[in-house]
Amino acid sequence: MSSTFDQVATIIAETCDIPRDTITPDSHAIDDLGIDSLDFLDIAFAIDKQFGIKLPLEKWTQEVNDGKATTEQYFVLKNLCARIDELVAAKGTSA
Amino acid sequence: MQLEYFHMIDRIVDLNVDEKKIVVEAQVPKESTIFEGHFPGYPLMPGVLLIESMAQASGWLQLGVFKFERMPILAAVKEAKVRGSVFPGDLMSIEASLAHEGSGYAMTEAKIRVGGKLRANSTLTFTLIPFPNADMRRYMDAIAKRVGFPQQADSP
Which part of the chain is the Carrier domain (chain A) (predicted)? Predict the structure, then answer.
């Protein structure tokens, strides 16, 4: 099975028409890849479906707006993938 | 249906919040200034208004499912097909279902039928925002009453 990063990178490449080889674990979805909020909804949708989770975008956005978190914590891909892994693990625990 | 006011939906026929589906009706007026330009001698409903109709049907569905806690705002038309024309005087039956509930957004699939025949379908994305002010909330409450929004689907 491919890694979380590989799956997310493929989703981003296909959803936003970004060359796959330009997407790295250190890429910032917004600052480096130029993904806007509307495009990110498509990515979130694909991630939700693929991993069977619900990315808490509203909570993350609120935390960033309140200065309690940085965009890097959620939108640098290696960090995003870590959040996804946490959500998948939590789903398995609560099932 | 009052095209000039973007009142596209006349009546909620069935709202099933458990199955996350809705059926509404919309009676296309026989006359409208819109038809004077679209088109002289061959009036028909503009495709964008068919999409708007599907968006509003989807909107009422989400207001029911999310208990009027958020206002759905159309954000993206993922796919829309106008498979046949809709003419003045036609009664549109519009059904919508919730395809995905995200965090702060939702996706729906909607169809328009006239006389049982599919005329248009679309996949739509909405952002869900808090009601921006009391005026808008009151306005939506008034429209809800007009279209027969079931009270039990509303928030307490």
Answer: 2-88
